[in-house]
Amino acid sequence: MSDAIIIDGKAIADGYLSKIKEEVSRLPTRPCLAMVLVGDNPASLLYVRYKKKYAEDLGITSFLYMLPTETKEEELIHLVEDLNNNPQVDGILVQLPLPDHISEFKIISTIRPDKDVDGFTKENIGLLALKQDCLVPCTPLGCIKLLKSVKDDISGLNAVVIGRSNIVGRPLAQLLLNENCTVTLSHSHTQNLPDLCLSADILAVAVGKPGLVKGNWIKPGAIVLDVGISYLPDKSIKGDVDFEEAIKVAQAITPVPKGVGPMTKAMLMHNTVKAYKRRRNFIEDKK
């Protein structure tokens, strides 16, 4: 068997961004994305600056509110409520993680569901579970689009998701179920994980443990989505899957970096435009 197809997430994301930019240029006004960062986490600061640049490159207005670590929960709630009530703001993103003294659930629950471009509110997660139109979490949505770039019809396939976070694992499992896959959501308490992985036609890994999944865990011909990203002491970047081993077994695999990451940012822009259009009763493009 030849080496796996490397799924070029950056190229696919660039294609989506090009279409979004064209779509934005035809809108009567510019969509507006408001982002909130609490604290000085270097990775979080880098992420929001990238997101701001993505938005501006597409013609989306963006605002970044940078608050000190000691910001009180009540102050953050007040800011989110102000953004909720601002008719010019179409999307609200509060960068996670938040400082320990602030409840992530309480803050996310404060965001208006129709402005929840991260897709994290209980309303959007509930609609996703009911297979209804909603704002879908960006990373899982990007994973599905990358998956379908290799195989458009995934109905009936066995899918194993490693990791049950509310941000990636759980909503990705739901999206795969909505595509008529047979889905197993595994985690740190799962027994015989390597054997379970070997049953997967689609294997998605999102735990943040570099090199966790070995080549002999992968079913020959499987499609592998590596969502994890870890920064090692030698400054190298590694995913959750042993890439060099996996490419000898899998049909296709996302690399780290330039795999899932660019699609996450592209889907955030997609959701921002979708929120803009839904709030103004535009006819949505379902593609």
Output the keywords:
287 residues, alpha/beta, Rossmann fold, 2 domains, 6-stranded parallel beta sheet, 3-stranded parallel beta sheet, 11 strands
Condensed summary:
With 287 residues, this protein is α/β, with parallel strands linked by helices.
CATH topology of the largest domain: Rossmann fold
Distance between the termini: 34 Å
Fraction of residues in β-strands: 15-25%
Question: How can the largest sheet be summarized?
Answer: 6 strands, parallel
Give the CATH H-level superfamily of the largest domain. Answer: NAD(P)-binding Rossmann-like Domain
Number of E-state strands: 11
How many DSSP H or I helices? 10
Overall CATH class of the largest domain: Alpha Beta
Strand order of the largest sheet: 1-11-8-7-5-6
Task: Quickly give the structural class.
Answer: alpha/beta
Shape: globular
Please compute the radius of gyration using only Cα atoms.
19 Å
Assign a percent range to the helix content.
25-40%
Q: Could you state the order of secondary-structure elements as H and E?
A: EHEHEHEHHHEHEHEEEEHEH
What's the overall average pLDDT, rounded? 96
| Parts with pLDDT < 50 across at least 5 consecutive residues | none
Number of domains: 2
Reported CATH architecture of the largest domain: 3-Layer(aba) Sandwich
Question: Any overview of this molecule?
Answer:
The chain has 287 residues and is an alpha/beta fold. The chain has 2 domains: 27-112, Rossmann fold; 137-261, Rossmann fold. The chain is 39% helix and 15% strand. The strands form 3 sheets. Strands 1-11-8-7-5-6 form a 6-stranded parallel beta sheet. Strands 3-2-4 form a 3-stranded parallel beta sheet, with helices on both faces. The protein is globular. The model has no long low-confidence stretch (mean pLDDT 96).
